[in-house]
Amino acid sequence: MTSPSDPLTVIRAIDAELTHVWMVRTFLKHADESEEDEDLREVVRDLYDFILAVGPVTDETDTAVYMKMAKKKLRRLRGATELYEAIQPEVSGHTNFAMAAKSLRLAVNRIIALVQPPQ
User: Fold this and answer.
1) Cβ atoms within 10 A of the Cβ of 43, count?
2) First and final CA of the chain: distance in angstroms?
3) Are 5 and 105 in contact (CB under 8 A)?
4) Who contacts 88 (Cβ-Cβ below 8 Å, separation ≥6)?
5) What's the CA gap between 77 and 55, in Å, rounded?
6) Backbone conformation region of residue 55, classed left if phi is above 0, alpha if psi is from -120 to 50, else beta
7) Which member of 15, 75, 88, 109 has the lowest number of beta carbons within 10 Å of its beta carbon?
8) Domains (ranges, CATH) in the chain?
9) Tens digit of pLDDT per residue, the chain (119 long)?
């Protein structure tokens, strides 16, 4: 995937991927399994932390500040994704949980490519 060169286009693309991250987070947050699993609650918190840190994109969004925060918080987003992928089979083998892991991975891979494009 090639990254767009216009900074506002880049952050809008990240924001679009965050809609998928938000839906996974919401699914996990409201799943009964979250009540019993501290790791799953950590995933939910870390996904929310990234989304909250970058905030919604508007025409007035400072692209440099947005990208700085996205780069700063990217490690937590990656970590949450990796943790969820690791624990998902133990949390639940249900298709909803497996598809949430796949959806999260796809969105996060796209975000990584946008935040840290190849040099």
Assistant:
1) 28
2) 13
3) no
4) 97, 98, 100, 101
5) 14
6) left
7) 75
8) 7-115 (1.20.120)
9) 455 678 999 999 999 999 999 999 999 999 999 999 999 999 999 999 999 999 889 888 999 999 999 999 999 999 999 999 999 999 999 999 999 999 999 999 999 999 997 76
Contact by Cβ (8 Å): 107, 88: no
Angstrom distance (rounded) from CA 73 to CA 57: 16
Single-letter amino acid, residue 26? T
Residue 93 DSSP SS3: coil
Tokens (6 digits) for 1: 């995937």
Q: At what angle do helices 7-30 and 38-54 cross, to 10 degrees?
A: 150
